[in-house]
Structure to design on (1276 residues):
């Protein structure tokens, strides 16, 4: 054979080898359901025991009648098992069971365990949670279960859990599957390993895939290195039982490394784990078993070498991998198979087998778990040595206890707050404590030694700490040692456990440096035990992968996990539900006013909450998102740079911005350019000088300016046709020496937000410019008002299947007049989810994930069919189900600890109706969200008979938000408060309208002139005064001043009747005020200052206040006809703050401040809008405080007046109350009722005098000298 022929033969052999190696994975995709048990020899069967030779385990073949017709153990308890050896590793896809033929013996449930060696068993779990399989209900029928994930093992062990209570354990079984093809290599932690060099023709720039399986007992070591171009590479590295993917730049220990991903936990369990690393360009996927984490790098990595050999002097980890690897492939090439055939691309010293050390572990499941071992020494010794390894998640539990030869002496070794403690009790107490936390799930070695009275405890060869202590007597063990717990007291009085039981695993137990054979314990040939699983460690990491969402921190014990949601912005058992509303609109409809809020635009979705400012106006609710520069900024050109590029960083990240814009009804952003000899858009050659980038990051180039349309290449003035130079479409393009500007709003949502601007004409001599990009502002929430009305119980909307396998939350608002109906339903084969109004006062949330139906309900104290909006929030996760209605307490229901947790649905999602023929819902459903995604009810309702888009009528639910006589006005999407009849303003008419007054300030509000024909008429019909002749007055205001005396309010009439409201300082040096009211005829029946209780005063019997002319706040310039003292006081004016002034239906101060041109109001002097009247502006330690005054008189009632001042006023007047009682009644009748000749005569009625002292508004304490007989003065 010549050289050419030899080379051709080698190439053909290599091609065949590659084809063979690259096709190994296809076998797993073939049909794999052949019987595996029926043809096995009797030697392939083992069992814990057998009832007789005819009940031997090899009779346990499906449908066979040999022997006694199946296997039955000697004793029927949960410590029995049946084991099958398939002879080689096989893929098991299904298991079938049957009872013992012709008997009443069968299994009701059982466990399945698998192993490669006959030791170190691993329990098979469905959905990673459910460990048991339902069995049979008679002896003849066959029950078969297809495994969700095929198991690969040589040995199968079946453990009975429950059986027919009228019989005993009886079993025939079959398993189905196929042989498993594998190539394996083992590594001993030395420098030996496998190196595969990729040939230049095999290198790919777009995609690389590495697959392998590994098993190990060591929790750390470098598993794989992938060498790339330019000294870069990837490392797969075990650290404390987790697999890390690291990016390495260089090969030395000082190389720059970056952590890319980490997956898995407890990977040092000596079981096979599948690993895959996939690179697609700069994107990387790491998969460990069934879980994948995605990451990326900022460059493309072209792999040229794959190696399992590690060099301590040049790699990141100084620990090499110690264990076995099988089916290692790179881009489809089986590298172990290539190494077996001595391919020149693969080098290294390898052992093509997997040598596994036998390590028998024992699992303490609690609470009755214990292991009792005898102490073989029969006489006291001066030395004691006990050792073992343990792993657990619990912070507390008894590890070991034993008695000493000395009477009343006992030793306890236990965990407390995750720290190891040793306590020796002998009429005293010696406690040794180690500070290292040992509940991390890792294996920890504990060594206890005593020599000549000195006790030593060491953890992890000293890495976990050590402690020593001296005793006054030698330590000598008597009787037995108890690990993990104690038997029931009646069975073993020598063991006392004052601590909690241990839940975890132990292995490598030694007594006096001799290993304990736990298989002998299992066979009950050594010691005793209870509730243990021997030859396996059943620890599970419930935090890997973590079911805590949105950054919640996972912690766990042996049985459960807990999510700490603090600081995440989410709540619930798995941190699934957002604690924030999804928009400013939603906050408004909770009754909030303007301020900073966190909004979560997608609720329980992946987008994190963002901090925004919500500006609640009477018309719209604006959401404002700022960036790093919203001010008008002068351009400072950089020498040598023709264009200035400016980037804007927003307080929200890109996905938050885009989601907020998408769900808003309208968004806008100001864009302005101020210029002098600086052109904006139009250049002589047609390309723009300046442009901006907007939309999704990094943004699209936009060549129009604020106020214009996209693609128009214009500014706002060009759109309006009023630019300073008609030849151009922007003011700045006129290139004038005077300052001008191009400003406007950008409102095309697809182009927002503005990411950056580029300014081009900024370097010419004499050019000056400034720019401003305002904050992003949006209003409206399309999701919040998305609604549908179901007018029939048979109408419904349908949507695609709801996918909420592990976490599902549903939220919506409803209103109805019906007493029951189904809101939502989605069905599966057995699973379902449903929310319904079960009665007029109850909402019911029910579902089934395979554990049987579970219901959560909330009952309201008030009817829910009141045609008002009610909010429902339902959540289901693997820990619990919860339901909340409005603001009622959340109702919760715990999920089974080891049950099914995947919600598997396959039908359409029904809204407002049901596929199960239950009663549908009649009413409105709004803002329906499933896992943070809003369903577009309105769009679907447009094409669905019996369902109407939208749902009007919101004031019945939200009208109570309108305060202070504000009126709720309906809108298609929501409501707003009309404050036109209120003295307040704001989104809910809650903001006080206040003004600061100077001494010369005067606000005069003029009522309609009743003298329509002229002022000289002597006989005017009473109808002229009908609208201004009042039988009821309602006056309210707030004031804040240090002036005394002062006139607060003056109301005059065309008949010289007037009302004057004034204050006077009480005494010298005090800040209490006396309020005086000058009135004619009826005034108030309710009179109150601040929040004090009202008091009533009967002043007169007159019934009308006729022909009101005007109301004056502040200084009164027209004082003709006034009492001289009052006129003098009116001319002084008022200095201070007046707020929320209201006279009947008129708000004169509000009219003066907001409608001075269109209202019958005149203003003299300075009047400044202020917040001086708000509670927050009043300093409780200042001399000026705000007082709230209100007065009211009812129709045809005797006039009653009431006033309560603050405590200082009350204290000031108590001293003269007795004087008033004795003298007031004698003198008040003469002055209280006098009438003018122009009025009709009325019989005077005596009025009861207020039992308070009278104070003038001047410094004199004498009674006032009235100049007109018709005027009356009342001091209140």
């Amino acid at each position: 054979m010549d050289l050419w022929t030899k080379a051709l033969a080698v190439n053909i052999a290599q091609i065949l080898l590659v084809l063979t190696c690259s096709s190994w994975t296809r076998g797993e995709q073939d049909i794999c359901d052949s019987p595996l048990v029926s043809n096995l020899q009797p030697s392939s069967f083992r069992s814990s025991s057998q009832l007789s030779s005819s009940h031997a385990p090899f009779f346990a073949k499906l449908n066979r009648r040999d022997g006694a017709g199946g296997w039955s153990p000697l004793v029927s308890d949960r410590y029995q098992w049946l084991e099958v050896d398939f002879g080689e590793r096989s893929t098991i896809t299904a298991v079938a069971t049957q009872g013992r033929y012709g008997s009443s013996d069968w299994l009701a449930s059982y466990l399945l365990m698998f192993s490669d060696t006959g030791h170190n068993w691993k329990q098979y779990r469905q959905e990673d949670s459910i460990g048991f399989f339902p069995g049979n209900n008679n002896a003849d029928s066959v029950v078969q279960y297809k495994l969700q994930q095929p198991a690969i093992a040589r040995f199968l062990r079946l453990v009975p859990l429950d059986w027919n209570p009228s019989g005993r354990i009886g079993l025939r079984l079959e398993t189905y599957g196929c042989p498993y093809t594998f190539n394996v290599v083992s590594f001993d932690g030395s420098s030996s390993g496998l190196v595969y060099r990729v040939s230049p023709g095999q290198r790919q720039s777009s995609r690389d895939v590495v697959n392998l399986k590994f098993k190990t007992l060591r929790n750390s070591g470098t598993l794989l290195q992938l060498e790339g171009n330019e000294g870069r590479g990837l490392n797969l590295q075990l650290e404390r039982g987790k697999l890390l993917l690291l990016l390495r730049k260089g090969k030395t220990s000082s190389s720059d490394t970056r952590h890319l991903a980490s997956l898995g936990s407890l990977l040092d369990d000596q079981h096979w784990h599948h690993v895959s690393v996939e690179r697609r360009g700069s994107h990387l996927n790491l998969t460990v078993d069934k879980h994948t984490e995605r990451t990326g790098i900022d460059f493309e990595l072209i792999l040229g070498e794959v190696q399992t050999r590690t060099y301590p002097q040049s790699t990141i980890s100084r620990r090499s991998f110690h264990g076995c690897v099988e089916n290692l492939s790179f881009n489809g090439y089986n590298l172990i198979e290539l190494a077996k055939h001595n391919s020149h691309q693969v080098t290294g010293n390898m052992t093509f087998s997997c040598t596994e050390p036998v390590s028998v572990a024992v699992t303490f499941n609690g609470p009755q778990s214990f292991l009792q071992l005898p102490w073989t020494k029969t006489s006291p010794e001066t030395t004691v040595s006990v050792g073992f390894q343990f792993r657990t998640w619990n912070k507390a539990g008894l590890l070991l206890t034993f008695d000493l030869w000395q009477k009343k002496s006992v030793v306890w070794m236990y965990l407390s707050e995750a720290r190891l403690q040793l306590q020796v009790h002998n009429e005293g107490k010696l406690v040794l404590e180690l500070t290292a936390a040992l509940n991390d799930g890792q294996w920890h070695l504990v060594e206890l030694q005593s020599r000549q009275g000195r006790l030593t405890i060491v953890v992890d060869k000293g890495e976990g700490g050590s402690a020593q202590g001296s005793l006054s007597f030698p330590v000598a063990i008597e009787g037995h040692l108890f690990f993990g717990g104690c038997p029931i007291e009646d069975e073993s009085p020598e063991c006392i456990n004052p601590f909690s039981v241990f839940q975890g695993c132990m292995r490598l137990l030694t007594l006096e440096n001799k290993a304990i054979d736990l298989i002998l314990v299992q066979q009950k040939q050594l010691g005793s035990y209870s509730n243990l699983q021997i030859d396996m460690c059943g620890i599970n990491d419930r935090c890997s992968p973590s079911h805590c969402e949105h950054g919640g921190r996972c912690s766990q014990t042996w049985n459960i996990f807990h999510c700490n949601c603090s600081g995440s912005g989410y709540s619930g058992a798995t941190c699934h539900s957002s604690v924030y509303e999804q928009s400013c609109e939603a906050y408004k409809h909770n009754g909030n006013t303007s301020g900073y809020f966190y909004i979560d635009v997608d609720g329980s979705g992946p987008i994190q909450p963002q901090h925004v400012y919500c500006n609640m106006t009477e018309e719209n609710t604006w959401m404002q998102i700022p960036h790093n520069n919203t001010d008008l900024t002068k351009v400072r050109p950089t020498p040598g740079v023709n264009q200035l590029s400016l980037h804007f960083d927003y307080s929200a990240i890109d996905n938050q911005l885009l989601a907020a814009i998408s769900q808003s009804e309208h968004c806008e952003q100001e864009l302005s350019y101020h210029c002098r000899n600086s052109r904006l858009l139009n250049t002589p050659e047609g390309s723009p000088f300046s442009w901006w980038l907007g939309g999704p990051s990094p943004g699209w180039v936009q060549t129009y300016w604020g106020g214009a349309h996209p693609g128009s290449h214009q500014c706002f003035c060009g759109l309006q046709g009023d630019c300073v130079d008609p030849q151009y479409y922007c003011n700045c393009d006129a290139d004038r020496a005077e300052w001008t500007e191009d400003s406007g709003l950008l409102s095309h949502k697809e182009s927002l937000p503005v990411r950056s601007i580029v300014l081009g004409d900024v370097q010419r001599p004499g050019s000056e410019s400034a720019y401003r990009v305002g904050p992003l502002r949006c209003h409206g929430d399309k999701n919040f008002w998305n609604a549908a009305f179901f007018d029939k119980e048979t109408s419904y909307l349908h949507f695609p299947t709801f996918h909420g396998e592990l976490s599902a939350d549903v939220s919506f608002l409803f209103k109805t007049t019906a007493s029951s109906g189904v809101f939502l339903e989605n069905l599966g084969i057995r699973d379902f989810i449903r929310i319904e109004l079960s009665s007029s006062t109850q909402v019911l949330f029910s579902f089934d994930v395979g554990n049987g139906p579970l219901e959560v309900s909330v009952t309201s104290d008030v009817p829910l069919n009141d045609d008002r909006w009610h909010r429902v929030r339902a959540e289901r996760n693997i820990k619990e189900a919860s339901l909340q209605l409005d603001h009622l307490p959340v109702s919760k229901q715990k999920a089974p600890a080891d049950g099914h947790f995947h919600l598997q649905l396959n039908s359409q999602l029904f809204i407002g109706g049901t596929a199960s023929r239950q009663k549908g819902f009649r009413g409105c459903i709004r803002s329906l969200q499933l896992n943070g995604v809003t369903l577009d009810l309105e769009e679907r309702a447009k094409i669905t008979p019996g369902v109407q888009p939208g749902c009007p009528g919101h004031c019945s639910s939200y009208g109570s938000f309108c305060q202070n006589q504000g009126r709720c006005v309906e809108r298609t999407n929501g409501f707003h408060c009309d404050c036109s009849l209120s003295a307040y303003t704001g989104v809910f008419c809650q903001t006080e309208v206040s003004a600061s007054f100077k001494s010369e300030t005067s606000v005069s509000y003029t009522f309609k002139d009743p003298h329509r024909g002229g002022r000289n008429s002597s006989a005017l019909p009473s109808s002229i005064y009908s609208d201004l002749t009042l039988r009821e007055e309602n006056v309210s205001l707030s004031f804040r001043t240090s002036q005394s005396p002062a006139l607060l309010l003056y109301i005059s009439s065309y008949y010289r009747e007037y009302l004057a409201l004034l204050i006077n300082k009480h005494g010298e040096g005090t800040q209490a005020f006396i309020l005086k009211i000058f009135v004619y005829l009826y005034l108030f029946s309710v009179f109150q200052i601040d929040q004090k209780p009202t008091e009533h005063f009967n002043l007169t019997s007159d019934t009308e206040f006729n022909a009101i002319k005007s109301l004056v706040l502040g200084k009164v310039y027209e004082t003709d006809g006034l009492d001289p003292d009052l006129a003098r006081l009116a001319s002084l004016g008022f200095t201070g703050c007046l707020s929320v002034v209201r006279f009947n239906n008129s708000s004169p101060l509000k009219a003066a401040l907001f409608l001075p041109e269109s209202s019958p109001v005149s203003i003299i002097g300075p009047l400044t809008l202020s917040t001086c009247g708000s509670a927050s502006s009043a300093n409780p330690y200042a001399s000026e405080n705000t007082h709230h005054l209100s007065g009211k008189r009812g129709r045809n009632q005797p006039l009653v007046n009431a006033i309560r001042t603050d405590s200082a006023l009350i204290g000031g007047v108590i001293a003269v109350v007795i004087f008033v009682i004795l003298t007031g009644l004698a003198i008040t009748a003469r002055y209280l009722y006098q009438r003018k000749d122009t009025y009709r005569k009325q019989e005077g009625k005596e009025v009861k005098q207020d039992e308070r002292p009278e104070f003038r508004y001047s410094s004199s304490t004498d009674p006032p000298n009235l100049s007109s007989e018709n005027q009356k003065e009342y001091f209140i």
In short: The mean pLDDT is 82. The radius of gyration is 44 Å. Residues 405 and 1179 are 78 Å apart (CA to CA). The longest strand covers residues 143-163.
